[in-house]
Write a structure and sequence with these properties.
Strand order of the largest sheet: 5-6-9-8-7-10
Number of strands: 11
Low-confidence stretches: none
Number of helices: 2
Mean pLDDT: 86
Radius of gyration: 28 Å
Helix content: 25-40%
Number of domains: 2
Structural class: alpha+beta
């Protein structure tokens, strides 16, 4: 057999080297990592989009119920310098009205709304009320929330303005309420109804939260927030909506 024939046969029987196989496997692994990351991000964003769509529907129902059950704008508990929960202004509304959907169903409902109210202007003739609606999800089976309830409900948390030139830090006064506000939570200023998002906890002070913008409230006041279940869990609030309603 001549030399040229031997070289031809050798080239036909040549396979992949171990180095080539490892490079191919490594390239495939890197590609799959990016693909899986994109897939998980897509699922997360799709979930958020779905929940926000549901939240807008729940909010429309909540504002409609607030109008339906009505508010007396001359109620002495309704003031311009503080928020009050809607059920404190109208004793006729029952706890089942805060669940979504409001139709009678056999399964446990996962979405709930709550409303905070304040008079928009002073004076006995004013009929405008600022209504802030918080849409929340119930997480887990039979959770217990601060106060002993089994549905997400806003609570008032005392705060004071923290140190810093930016003016976007708040100190939570009561150590028992430190766990009520975490990264990504939304809080409502008790005096003005202003809505803020919490960026993070101050890494140097566990009782201090950093807001997305400068605090416009007073140096010592309170905020409203829907805290997580007593045993812990993710942020229950899906979205916050606000309207001026004439009664």
């Amino acid at each position: 057999m001549n030399r040229r024939l031997k070289m031809k046969l050798a080239s036909k029987n040549k396979g992949f080297s171990l180095t080539e196989v490892l490079l191919a496997v490594g390239t495939l692994a890197i590609g799959m990592t990016f693909v899986s990351g994109t897939f998980l991000a897509g699922v997360y964003l799709s979930t958020i989009s779905t929940e926000r769509t549901i939240a807008s529907v729940v909010a429309d129902e909540a504002f409609a119920k607030v109008r339906l059950f009505d508010i007396d704008p001359t109620d002495p508990n309704l003031t311009t310098d503080g928020l009050i929960r809607y059920e404190m202004l109208n004793a006729e509304i029952t706890s089942g009205e805060f669940a979504y959907p409001s139709t009678q169903t056999d399964y446990d409902k996962q979405y709930f709304w709550s409303a905070l109210c304040r008079s928009a202007y002073p004076g006995s003739e004013n009929r405008l009320v600022q209504v802030t609606v918080l849409i929340s999800r119930r997480v887990g089976n039979n959770p217990t929330y601060p106060g002993g309830g089994n549905i997400p409900t806003p609570v008032e948390v005392g705060v004071s303005l923290g140190a810093g030139a930016e003016g976007n830090k708040l100190v939570i006064n009561n150590s028992n309420q430190w766990a009520y506000i975490n990264d990504g939570y939304k809080i409502v200023d008790n005096r003005t109804g202003g809505i803020y998002r919490v960026l993070q906890r101050d890494p140097d002070s566990p009782n201090t939260i950093v807001l997305d913008r400068t605090w416009q409230g007073q140096s010592a006041d309170s905020v409203w927030v829907v805290p997580p279940p007593v045993n812990g869990g993710r942020n229950p609030v899906v979205a916050v909506y606000q309207k001026l309603i004439r009664f």
